[in-house]
TrEMBL record:
Protein name: Heparinase II/III family protein
Cross-referenced InterPro entries: Chondroitin_lyas, Hepar_II_III_C
Top-level taxon of origin: Bacteria
One Pfam family here: Hepar_II_III_C
Protein's cellular compartments: Cell envelope
Residue ranges constituting the Heparinase II/III-like C-terminal domain according to the UniProt record: 529-667
Primary location group: other
């Protein structure tokens, strides 16, 4: 064995010295020091004995939820108003007590601290059989009876049989886990205070606490307790040590970092004297009579526990969580052969296996290649959860950056990791929002997923000016205060570099975005400096795991508000929350179409057919063939069309062919919804599932443990029109739910979103959908429109116009326009057109067709041949014409209509086959010759096996002669996975292959 460890290895002396210099030289760094010192002082004041005794052994269970179904024992679900984990505590003045904010009562009602101390043995370990059970009496509220609210650590059962885990909740949130907890909170504060000041008082308190954790940590195992009662963050594995296996990954990193920080001063005479006395008092096998003994205790009790605990899935979280924990342990332990063995395991292909649960490998390289898509997103759909992938893999990269015992693991050279840094800026919407897909954030709240520190690090390391622009925006469009971390030499120099980029390129102005690997499009218009930003987005990516069954879901942001808020994070992201399983993740709760009263099937990503970010008209067209196997077509074509500098409207064509029931669902923001053209009658009782079906009562798909039904029983206060006209509208007046405008939460505004439906339907209905109610600030309800069509061999094309507007409408009329083929009226999904007349005097004809080779007439006055087109005129004179993937859109009176090529077609000759940030396609085109500049900015669609799509933005093009072109597709890799995940030497699998057909749709835009 070789032991190189003569000092701390993660917090190196050089880094610590730089940190102390920075806290002296920079106000922001001094603020970090002062915050850490303030908190550390509070813990130091408790005394070493208090800290020593604060670590409970295994016989006190941990649980993160008192009762996730019942809430408060007094107010029931009223406590949901205070959030998921609402109970409070004063760990210094009232240990082992939690405060119910909904009732003001404290629990448990007995003096658990006295009961706990009565059960401590000579070694300071709690033995339940020794504890004085006469202390288990209600002393706080005697009028409720001697046993009311009494918890001996295993929970209190009320008269109805409901279990409340007060003590376990306290042990979880206020002893072990959380910023203000005795263990995690104190160790973090003492670590930072010591690193920033060098004051040994903080190190002494931290060492005593860490040493005591090491005494008990090997024996901790949450599997000793009934998971049905003691809930933990374990992904239903019933695995973990101090807490559930997922959050355990964060907790152990605190332990490891604390050990690394305190390592150089563990020989301190005061620490040794105190801990050696405790060892003698408690009869511990380790005498703790030297710094070496104390280090050995921590290494044996914590560091050496991590590798077997990871393998046993006791420390096992989302991608990157346990990997970074084990990598950190390996580098801090810094001892061969263990360090290499642990790092080899971290990079070994494997994952979570079942029966029994075990982790067979950290899977880092395989996951980066196979699970991170070409846009840099993980496979969890939710931006919040995918953000954890970046945070955790970045941490592993930092841990191993320059580590000479394992130089082959420089993750910053991995093109996929680099791409992860640029994955989230494209999800920014409007001025203050991020895409709210899957289990993310609250219902329509302003939030930014992108982290300023990540953008500054990426700019510093990679130099891409985009990162500087994003950082500038996140910092309030200023450079003042920008800095790298406290361990960096000259950390504020980054501000000057960011300023140089802004001076050259200007502030961030995001263009329309298409992330075909992730499955997201944002059509953007407006100017951030004029506060006219508006966008329409469409999501078509992962719809499983932390995703929702929401393929082809659309949303609108305008005038500073989210006008179609997704429900966001459920009440509880587990398998017990039926509100989540049957409603929040269901297709009906999103702006999509439900087929045959069932939620969508799972998929990785759908298949885009067209994307065009041309300014006046912007288009996205996506088909999802896998989400409803009984359909032959499930496709959405949506365009955002500029009306003027401040306003745009959207035209939406949702095609569904197959099945016998189609329910189109759309909802607006919190606020009143009014209708035009509908005659609604209130349903006297029940839900949208039926007048005899109560709210939340499962009425369909009753077989099986997984719910695949409609979710209609979560739509309440129903109004129906059984014979709606072919044209009607619903107008939502937005409340400022999240106080964006500063006038108060939920105040009605003059911002609206209006949907006009132009499709024949059997029924139209309005109903209330209920967002998660334990997210403070969430609206109590949202009003949904459901348009129903039914019949055998059903072929539907739901054509609608969506208008966000402020004050008064900028649209005067919306009607369907007749589409004919060879003089015969077209019905069904083949083609449709709408006519939109604006107050400005402009009239737009908007057409969508499936086959660009078929010629149509529109409104008996226009030729159209293409996939999508807009013909705009004023007083009968053409204003502009837009044709995408088509040949013409012109009046019938034109004697010789101008025809243009609709698309470039060809085949793939070759492509970039290595993992790199610079990727190309070598293609052979057919037919006409093209100017390479005409292809730049377009999208190439390559036919492939359908497992994932093969759609890429063309960054640049070069003609090679004889119809060949080199297409630069930037940092979008063509690699799908390793050919053999166990043997990387066998190369890669790709999303395309040589000889595959390709298509590059073109756009013609002409003004009069």
């Amino acid at each position: 064995m070789t032991n190189r460890k003569t000092r701390a290895t993660y917090y190196t002396p050089g880094k610590v010295s730089a940190a102390r210099d920075n806290v002296r030289n920079y106000a922001w760094a001094a603020a970090l020091r002062d915050a850490a010192v303030s908190k550390a002082e509070a813990f130091v004041a408790l005394g070493l004995d208090f800290l020593w005794e604060a670590v409970p052994p295994q016989t006190v269970p941990r649980s993160y939820g008192v009762n996730q179904v019942l809430g408060s024992p007094i107010t029931g679900r009223e406590i949901d108003k205070f959030g998921n984990y609402p109970y409070m505590a004063d760990i210094i003045q009232e240990p082992w007590k939690i405060l119910d904010p909904s009732s003001g009562l404290k629990f448990p009602s007995n003096d658990f601290d006295a009961f706990y101390r009565s059960g401590l043995d000579e070694g300071g370990m709690f033995r339940r059989e020794r504890a004085d059970r006469s202390l288990l009496v209600n002393s706080l509220y005697p009028d409720k009876g001697p046993g009311w609210g009494v918890d001996d650590g295993l929970g209190w059962i009320d008269d109805s049989g409901n279990v409340y885990t007060f003590v376990a909740y306290y042990a979880h949130w206020f002893v072990w886990h959380g910023r203000d907890s005795l263990i995690e909170g104190a160790l973090t504060a003492c670590r930072d205070a010591f690193l920033y000041t060098g004051d040994l008082r903080y190190a002494r308190a931290g060492i005593v606490l860490l040493d005591r954790v090491a005494d008990v940590y090997p024996e901790l195992d949450i599997a000793a307790y009934d998971r049905a009662i003691f809930l933990n963050s374990d992904g239903r594995k019933n695995k973990g040590k101090a807490i559930g296996s997922i959050w355990e990954t964060f907790l152990v990193k605190i332990f490891i970092q604390a050990y690394d920080a305190f390592f150089p001063v563990m020989d301190d005479a005061e620490v040794v004297a105190y801990l050696s006395a405790k060892a003698r008092q408690c009869g511990l096998s380790n005498p703790k009579s030297s710094g070496a003994d104390i280090r050995r205790n921590v290494e044996e009790g914590i560091l050496l526990q991590i590798y077997p605990a990871v393998k046993a899935a006791q420390i096992c979280g989302n991608d990157g969580m346990h990997q970074s924990a084990l990598a950190l342990a390996a580098v801090v332990y810094d001892t061969l052969p263990e360090t290499k063995e642990w790092l080899d395991f971290t990079f070994r292909t494997g994952g979570l296996a079942y029966d029994p649960y075990q982790v067979t490998g950290g899977n880092i390289l395989n996951s980066l290649i196979s699970n991170v898509d070409r846009d840099g997103h993980g496979n969890e759909a939710s931006p919040g959860y995918n953000g954890l992938w970046l945070a955790m893999h970045q941490l592993t990269a930092d841990i191993l950056d320059g580590y000479d015992l394992y130089p082959e693991a420089d993750l910053y050279k991995n093109a996929k990791l680099r791409k992860m840094f640029s994955a989230f800026p494209p999800l920014l919407l409007g001025e203050r929002y991020t895409l709210n897909a899957g289990d993310t954030a609250a219902t329509g709240n302003p939030y930014i997923q992108v982290r300023l520190d990540d953008m500054l690090k990426a700019f510093d390391r990679f130099g891409d000016p985009l990162f500087a622009q994003v950082a500038y925006r996140l910092n309030g469009n200023r450079t003042e205060g920008l800095h790298l971390d406290v361990f960096t030499a000259n950390p504020e120099h980054i501000a000057e570099r960011v300023g140089q980029v802004i001076g050259e390129l200007g502030p961030l102005q995001l263009e329309s975005t298409h992330l075909s690997g992730y499955g997201f499009t944002a059509l953007r218009d407006g100017d951030a400096s004029r506060r006219t930003l508006r966008n329409l987005w469409l999501y078509y990516g992962r719809n499983t795991g932390h995703g929702h069954r929401d393929t082809l879901n659309i949303g609108v942001h305008a005038f500073g508000l989210d006008l179609t808020p997704d429900l966001g994070y459920p009440e509880f992201a587990d398998f017990f929350d039926m509100h989540r399983a049957q409603w929040v993740i269901n297709t009906i709760s999103h702006n999509a179409v439900v087929v045959d009263k069932s939620k969508q099937q799972g998929q990785w990503v759908a298949e885009p057919r067209h994307f065009d970010p041309t300014g006046q008209v912007q288009l996205i067209d996506v088909e999802a063939p896998k989400v409803y196997p009984q359909t032959e077509l499930y496709r959405r074509t949506t365009a955002m069309i500029r009306a003027d500098g401040d306003n745009s409207y959207a035209v939406d064509f949702f095609r569904v062919k197959g099945g016998r029931d189609h329910h189109f669902s759309f909802h607006g923001p919190e606020g009143p919804a009014t209708t035009e053209g509908l005659s609604l009658s209130a349903q006297p009782s029940g839900t949208y599932a039926g007048a005899d079906v109560a709210y939340g009562q499962r009425a369909d798909d009753k077989d099986g443990s997984d719910y695949n039904g409609s979710g209609f029983h979560y739509l309440t206060r129903v109004e129906r029109d059984g014979s709606p006209p072919s044209g009607f509208s619903v107008d939502w007046q937005a409340c400022d739910t999240w106080n964006v405008f500063g006038g108060g939460a939920a105040v009605e505004t003059d911002v609206h979103v209006r949907l006009t439906m132009l499709t024949d339907a059997a029924e139209a209905a309005l109903a209330d959908g209920i967002p998660p109610q334990n997210k403070p600030g969430n609206p109590q309800k949202l009003r949904y429109l459901i348009v129903h069509r039914h019949g055998e061999g059903l072929d539907s094309l739901f054509a609608s116009v969506i208008e966000p507007y402020k004050g008064s409408r900028f649209v005067t009329s919306i009607t369907a326009a007749a589409v004919r083929r060879d003089g015969v009226l077209v019905t069904g999904s083949e083609a449709a057109a709408v006519k939109v007349t604006l107050k400005s005097g402009r009239t737009d004809y908007v057409v969508s067709a499936l086959d660009p080779d078929i010629a149509y007439t529109v409104d008996d006055r226009l030729h159209f041949q293409g996939c999508f087109g807009v013909y705009a005129e004023r007083e009968g004179t053409r204003d502009f014409v837009y044709v995408h993937d088509g040949r013409l859109f012109a009046p019938l009176t034109d004697s010789v209509p101008h025809e243009a090529a609709g698309a470039v077609e060809g085949t793939v000759v070759d492509f970039t086959r290595t993992l790199t940030s610079h990727n190309e396609l070598l293609v052979q085109t057919a037919g006409e010759s093209f100017d390479p500049a005409e292809l730049t900015g377009k999208t190439v669609f390559v036919e492939n096996d359908g497992q994932r799509n093969a759609v890429y933005r063309i960054v640049g093009a070069a003609a090679l002669g004889d119809g060949r072109f080199r297409l630069d597709i930037g940092d979008s890799t063509l690699i799908r996975a390793f050919a053999d995940e166990r043997d990387f030497a066998k190369g890669y699998l790709y999303d395309i292959e040589a000889g595959a057909a390709l298509r590059i749709p073109l756009t013609r835009f002409e003004r009069a």
